[in-house]
Amino acid sequence: SISSEEPTDLIIQIKNTKYLLHKLPMLSKCSLLQLLYQESQPEDIQLPHFPADEETFEVCTKFCYGMAVDLSSRNIVAVRSAAKYLQIPSLLQKLEAFIDTCILQSWKDSILTLQYAGKLGNLPENLQIINRCIESIVIKIVTPPSRVRWSFTYTRGSKSTGNLPPDWWVEDISCLDLQMYLRVLDVAKASSMITPSLVGQALEVYATRRLPDNGITIGISDNQADEVVVEQRQVLEAIVDQIPAGNGVVSGRFLIKLVKSASLLGASIVVKVRIIRKAGLQLDEASVSDLLIPKVSTGSPTFYDIDLVRDLLENFLVQFRRGQLPESSRFADMGQITARVEKVAKLIDSYLGQVARDPNISVSKIVRLAEMVPERFRQDHDDLYMAIDAYLKDFVV
């Protein structure tokens, strides 16, 4: 209840909480309560369809009593939804002014508003403010770097006011849930002012924040873990869908991280095939540690997934087969092509040196992967000999 010398004469129940209030301030501001009271004059009014929590109702109540209310990006959507439900036009007017002068003018407040709106679900009454926040965010994203005056988060290198990185915005929007994130990204792409490489950088930051490195979830129940896996799988599939077409738009190492995530999360065959194909085309950008992907298979004791690496290599080599290269590449870029294949040859041999110690990988799979590397692109056999030596020392008596 709210402290007053007058005795309370109205009870309103929100969820499991009953509020002892006064008719005069509540009914004078709140049209819904006026209507309900005129119909039956109840002293105890229940609002089972109230669209927010008790704290939000208390904000509305304070406003009706003429008390100061605290508004922020964290509660503006919920309070606005509640004010519309309760039909408090004077509060709605105050909220609209706050949105226009505070929320939409601020880069971070617009993002935080979207973040909290996502937790309230897809309520129709929230669509307007969501769309306005998205528009405000995208306007700032496409603002020329020389005109950016607001603060932002950038932890991937130095940021200089004299040379603003074009991807200055990607970390801040990565706090959004998947649905809100995709809506912002789609509107930004529709502006035609965001390059494919910037989209790729945004996706990489989002994936780093949302996808697992090792598939291990600590401190939550099995049911919660299942929910997390389902959510992460949806994030992975969305990221794969959003990757712009063309080689080099995102890094090969990032693509292989997505391959690893697809394996850990049990993604669909379709998603796995798509991402393996993309990652394979840029296999020369990977390191040996990138390829040490654990085997995820029921009943399988194998530590490393050599079959996955074989698929990556196959997709890398297929682009260099006869008829697969554009005419200009067949002549002008042969030196570059040779260097790429030589790099992958050394990568695979070094990888074999690591997995040859895995007692659960058959020698036939090791030999098959070694034979897939075109012999003429091996500059030396040192790493291959080391792999053979490691196998013989560990498993041949």
State the gist of this model.
With 397 residues, the protein is mainly α. The protein has helices spanning 23-29, 31-40, 54-64, 76-86, 89-103, 107-118, 127-141, 170-173, 178-190, 196-210, 222-242, 252-265, 269-281, 288-291, 306-318, 327-331, 334-355, 363-372, 382-395; strands spanning 10-14, 17-21, 44-46.
Describe the fold and architecture.
The chain is mainly alpha-helical and 397 residues long. The chain is elongated and about 90 Å long. The chain has helices at residues 23-29, 31-40, 54-64, 76-86, 89-103, 107-118, 127-141, 170-173, 178-190, 196-210, 222-242, 252-265, 269-281, 288-291, 306-318, 327-331, 334-355, 363-372, 382-395, and strands at 10-14, 17-21, 44-46. It contains 19 helices and three strands. A three-stranded mixed β-sheet has the order 2-1-3, covered by helices on one side. The protein has four domains: 1-100, Potassium Channel Kv1.1, Chain A (2-Layer Sandwich), CATH 3.30.710.10; 104-143 and 166-194, no CATH class; 207-281, no CATH class; 291-397. Helix 12 packs antiparallel against helix 13 (269-281). Strand 1 and strand 2 form a beta hairpin. Residues 167-397 form the NPH3 domain. Pathway: Protein modification; protein ubiquitination. It holds the Pfam family BTB. Belongs to the NPH3 family. This is NPH3 domain-containing protein.
